[in-house]
Amino acid sequence: MRMGPIEEFHIRVLYLIGAVSVPILLRKPIRYPEKPGSKWFAVTIGAVSLWLGSVGLYYFVHSLSGSLVLYNLVMFSVTICFAGWILIAVEFATGKSAPRIILGALATFALVHFVLLWTNFFWMHELFFESTAFVDDGGGLNVPRGPLFWVHIVIVYILVFLSTVLFVGEWANSSGLRRRQAGILAVTPLFGVAASLLWFAEVLPFLHDPTPVGVTIGVVLLSWALYRAEFLEIVPVGRKTAVEEMVDATIILGDENRILDWNSAARALFEPTDATVGMPADAFFEPVPPEMLTAFTSASQTDTQVSFELDGRERHFSVSTTPLESGHADPLGSVVVVRDITDLKRREEQLLQQNEYLDQFASIVSHDLQGPLMDIRGSAEMAVQSGNVSHIDHVLDATDRIEGLIDDLLRLARTGRQIESVEPVEISTVVESAWGRVWGQNAELIVDTDRSVHADPNRLQQLLENLFRNAVEHGSTDRNSLTSEDAVEYSFAETRDGEGSVIGFDDPNGTDTGIRDAADSNGSVRITVGLQPDGFFVEDDGSGIPEAARERIFERGYTTSEDGTGLGLGIVRQIAGAHGWSIHVREGRSGGARFEITDVDVVE
């Protein structure tokens, strides 16, 4: 049965209307470009639109060359359409961009097809269609098919088959919403295939090839399955309630623990490689240790705290997961909110330490002051009763011990304060200030660092003062010749050589303080401040610290001196901990004590 001109015209116009209507579907891939398959869905839409438009224009073109141009456009759009379809299936199933080998194979197939079609058009060969092609009186193109036409059709059917296999495989391995979504996607290519088979088998008396109509139906269903079935149900709900309103790292998970959305804070925190919608959660949360991953992917309401190394240091996080309900038996997914609580944890630890310090403070005041007070009382009573003024020397010694204890207690109280902020500080500058408060005649300081670190300058100076005082008072090879009276406070003026480097410091009376960049010394104790890969060290060449005592020297109250309080090195450890640093004591290169401060935030 042959159609009349009016009916033919109407059919062709419907094809043209379809050609200009199908691009409306581009709104979704443009809106969600990161969703797996979006860019290839856009390519498929373009190919289907070209296919419909070329078929529709057949009615208006009656020359053989013009009809063959449209025919080539139809054939090439078929190639692009189904190449895009299988790329959609690959990205949907894997959650990642298609491998280069697949892209290369499909690009080669499309390029070879394009070249063969147009070389056939110029009659360089007749592999796709023969030169006996003609346009009948009704404007229809009659094309005898060459051998490569059928090869092309077989390849297209293989692409459709592989696309369906990928969708069916994802359907079999999924559950819930994603299973329903994969099931719908699996049938989308079948409409075009069914229409094509009916046309070639001539089972029904079609007057026009129904394949583009079947493919168009499949594309519309493909759009609904890719976007409405998932994005219009899950993402707006999650984004409205969480992503747009949260400053913390926020991630939306679908079923099967696949990433559907995230905010900029999440991207900055986890720095996922090649982040795409639909990628597995373990790939997005790559820095998270596997044993902690369940805290991020739980499908139930949870609030947990986890700690792991990130950017080279230990970080603490609060992880909250909230299921997204929609009335179905299974949740649609979950919203994961990750908050960095590292600073909060550090403050909590500092508060706990402060409470401990207060207890120790009270204990020291109540216990350690009793001894000197009893000495004062006893010596005073003996002096009154005997009239021997030599007992007053014991009173003075006891008051000196009380004064030293009060000074250490004040330093302890100051170091108990939390560090609110840090700033870039030159170590050498702080070293000079600290040495000016501790300098002794029997000690020399060598400064071998120009490094700057992020620190509280006052607290860093306290740390160095206590290390210097420990070296001066305990590091001398002749300890009986060095007393606390040697640690006096001076003001200094720099002495520089002709090139401007510091070679020493003098007090106002002209006395050399003993600070050197690198020089030999006649002093009893040489103290060196130098660099380490992740911090700095303070080392002396004194008698050192026995290995058995190195773990105890930081304990408050531990001292080897009769008149010591045992607070100095405890203060050092407290200041280091408040900065997030570590401190260890080892044997120095000359047998003395070497204090290594590590995990320091160095200014680059």
List the helices and strands and how they pair.
Layout: H1 5-21, H2 27-31, H3 38-57, H4 64-94, H5 100-121, E1 134-135, E2 141-142, H6 147-172, H7 176-187, H8 190-201, H9 211-228, H10 235-241, E3 249-254, E4 259-262, H11 264-270, H12 281-284, H13 294-297, E5 302-310, E6 313-324, E7 333-340, H14 342-368, H15 370-386, H16 391-415, E8 423-426, H17 427-438, E9 443-448, E10 452-455, H18 457-474, E11 493-496, E12 502-506, E13 515-516, E14 525-532, E15 535-540, H19 568-579, E16 582-587, E17 593-598
Polypeptide structure, described:
- The structure is a single chain.
- Helix 4 (64-94) packs antiparallel against helix 5, helix 4 runs parallel beside helix 6 and helix 6 runs antiparallel to helix 7 (176-187).
- The protein is an alpha+beta fold and 604 residues long.
- A 6-stranded mixed sheet has the order 13-9-14-15-17-16, with helices on one face. It has a 5-stranded antiparallel sheet with strand order 4-3-7-6-5. Strands 1-2 form a two-stranded antiparallel ribbon.
- Strand 14 and strand 15 (535-540) form a beta hairpin.
- The longest helix is centred in the first third of the chain and has 31 residues, at 64-94.
- It has 19 helices and 17 strands.
Question: Helical segment tally?
Answer: 19
Which residues sit in consecutive blocks of at least 5 with pLDDT less than 50?
Answer: 231-237, 477-523
Share in helix: 40-55%
Strand arrangement across the biggest beta sheet: 13-9-14-15-17-16
How can the largest sheet be summarized? Answer: 6 strands, mixed
Shape estimate: rod-shaped
How would you state the average pLDDT, rounded? 78
Structural class: alpha+beta
Strand content: 15-25%
- What oligomeric arrangement do these chains adopt? single chain
Measured on Cα atoms, how large is the radius of gyration?
Answer: 41 Å
CA-to-CA gap between the ends?
Answer: 84 Å
How many E strands?
17
